Amino acid sequence: MVLLVVPAVGAVTAALVRHDLAGRIAGTVAAAVAFLATLPLPIGRGTRVDTGPALVPWHQVDVAWVPSLDLRFHLGVDGISYPLVVLTALLTLLCCGYTLWRVPDPGRGRLLVALLLIIEVGILGVFLALDLILFFVFFELVLLPMYAVIAGWGGPGRRRAARMFVLYTLLGSVLLLVGLVTVVGAAGTADLVQLTGTRLGTGTQYAAFVLLAIGFAVKSPLWPLHTWLPDAHTEAPTVGSVILAGVLLKMGTYGLLRVAVGVAPDAAQGAAPVLGGFAAAAIIVGGLVCLAQNEVKRLIAYSSVGHMGFVLLGIATLQPVGFQAALVGNVAHGLITGLLFFLAGAVKDRAHTGELAKLGGLRETAPGLSGLLGFAAVASLGLPGLAGFWGEAFAIVAALRTGGAYWNVLGVVAAFGAALAAAYLLRLLRRTTHGPASPAVLALDGPRLSAAELVAWAPLVLLIVALGLLPALVLGPGAAAVDALHGVVGR
Amino acid sequence: MRLPSTHCTGWWADEHWVRASADGGWWVVIDHVALLPAYLAAGTAVLVLVADLLKPVPPAVRETPRRVTVRGGVLAGVGAATGTGRALPSQSTVDAAPSDAAPSDAAPSDGSAGGRSAGPAADAGGVALFWRRLPLIVGAVGALAVAVSAAWLGLGLDGRVRTAFCGGAEAPDCSFAVDARATTLMAAFGLITLAVLALSAGVDAPPGEYAFLLVASMTGGVVLAGAADLITLIVALETLTLPLYVLVGLRRRPERAVESGQAAVTFLVVSVISTAISLLGAALVYAATGAIHFGAVRMVSNAVVDPALRPIATAGTVLLLAGLAFKVAAVPLHAWAPTTYDGAPLPVAAYLSTASKFGGVIAIGYVVTKALPAATDVTGPTLAVLAVLTMTVGNLVALRQTRMVRLLAWSSIAQAGYIVAALAVPGGLAVAFGYTVFFVLLELAAFGGIIGTRGPGADGGNLDDYAGLVRRAPARAVVIGLALAGLAGLPPGIAGLFAKVAVVRVLVDGDATWLAVVVAINAVIGLAYYVRAARILFTGPSGGRLERPSWTVAAALTLLTAAGLVAGFAPQLVFDLVVWS
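The joint structure predicted for all components is written out below.
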């Protein structure tokens, strides 16, 4: 697939080119080519036949790689992965473009671009892999480059944050490995196309599902395994936070949906109430913690915990509506949180502080920035008409539709969590944009937005509006695949 | 104490035996082709000695050995005759041959300055350097020949087994058997020795003895790969280890001689004890089964051993494995490794952590799968306990290390734990060998990077000495970084990732999921220190400039990196090699 080769080549070029700016430009061009390559993917997709297997990729590559490990180089794209693939390529492109304009300390921007492209290769690989072991290889590929991004370009507490990130997520991924290998050993194949729909033994399913769910829950991250996330997001450079929140977390939810639910549907059914309970807890905990945050990046990071709670709640319902909610929620969260982190980074770079108490009156000095921040916050709290609404609303609807007192309670709790989100985001806006201008805000470096920032953010703003008005952008391609997956669970 | 009369058709069933058995009676059949790599290895050892003896000693030196005073702790004095000038820690002066030392050590690091100032013989520089290096060159050529002959032997086997030293009237008791996998292992020993010799250019030791001991150790490894009875196994393993006691202590610079001496004595004492333990174990197994050949032991232990003898067989098995565990530095027989690695010259440490460990893995693997497959109820739990202890202790202690070589030593203890874990389940032999191949590649690359950075005469230094290495020597920093990532089992060290996947896979398939989880959690602990060491390479203030490593080190490093990358992107090659037969 061109998709993986282009960023890989770009990464190597960017790292090898001696001149810093030339390296960054080469990397950005590679990211742009990769993004353009994602666009024509839906062309030529076949129509699904109801009697066919549950997972029909639109396009695929399938080459034997390591037969003794049952590892095939099997990539393919379908309706569930496609929106995430595009999102990944887009965010990487925007981050590379942003790096053209501004390189965080300590410079060496071409290396940063190279690492971003390697991360892109890993994430795209995860979304495209149709082989469990290959999935794991790409899952691990992301780890060290992300560590390097945080540890190399991060804030003052970066070492600890990076170490937390890498150890926590590795713990998740090794448990994931054991789970995957359990499945592969029991089934005799690692091919997702064959595995989705085959029924393994119940014991194997439960063992695998628990291991896989823990592995993905660390990555997502699901409360109470989220503790690595705030530090990593706060300390990472802006582009690192954007990638981390925008697409890296989606590897967890995507994996849960595609691998854990797809391969162990019976166990998923059994464990759904537990998963739903944790998801609802995450929504509430995320909201409450956010209310008490005083640092803007930290607040956004914790809000991710809440939002991913909605996504996980959608998956846990095992309803088609829930899966749809998870898909839309994933993409919407990637766009909105990506934008929020860009904005928070811009604010911090200008004001040299992220303390809410020291920011205030942004509206007076930097109306453009505060306006965008307001837009992103409102989108994040799920205002109808913007992208954030659909994921949360559908997740609650799915929970209520599942029926039973327990799920009704979960739905109500989640709705309350949505209200909490409104509370903390409005608090964020009140503290930063309104009120008298603080000294830090008055001393803002360059209150106007630069052209590069506008170019980097405009696509996100447009897509948030577009997705809010037309959720079918994501739902359309995914519908067939979601129905098929639900068919597997319901059988 | 009886031998079964049933005719066995196993992996040793071979036309040589069948043909000879028609004569009846006692016979010894030697297939010299099977022994070719071993002959070559032993012959190389002899040639190395001859090459060293041929070395012309400048007459002036022989007549008037000068006394050179050691100053500032830097001494590049070289004994006129090989080894006679080895410095003792108590001496501040040694006999030295200045004209020999002058052009000699092409050591890229410190140390050669003292020698250069001592003698003027620059005219004969190239020739003297050639003669000094000759033993190393002969050893390298011999190691390559061993590898090539083993590969040729393996390709010609075509699924058969070649045997030698067969005897016994009833059972096909061969002491030496070469199957395809054994040839792979023989070739591996040759290549490891070749790599270590390449990394040894300018090592702080008399080259004659150094090359001889290394090649003698390789001979042990080659024989070990073909060993088919318990005695050959233990003797071969001792041949592999014995030269290392001397190699560890083989240093000429006095300021490091105390450490080397301590390392050598620690190594020797623990090793002797463990050899005694494994011999006792082998004796008990013999007492219980009446056999020492793998095939015979297997048949006897398959048949109903006298119940009264069962405890003896069990005790023998456990003791045998415990003694062999020393060679892979498994806990609780691990304490020698960090001291020894850190005290030994760097190339010797590299050899210890690869070839010596490989030997231990082969020995345990052969005992478990070829001699005592019926005793999995004993060997399985024993090895599982050893594995859990080894990886956990190794990783936890490695967390606190501040010296580079000690960190690698403790990490290699942990790695041995993963290998032993694979051996604890049925069918794990191939994966254990495969993992060892990956590990050896990565470990050699790591040590190669360190030698390239510090020079073969220096020690590994503290982790802080590597700060900002990427700015001084980007290529070497990237190699060490890749090797560390591989040892941690993470991309971009993708070879290590596949090794980890393979081990977890075989454990889960072998119904030892709990062990797989322990391995997985240990991988997380391991990452904590690998990432710490790797971070230092890429961050921090940059120190002074480094000198270029000698071309052999550079070439070895390049080849090792290339091999590591190939093994990473085409791991099937490695798995095919070790699963061959």
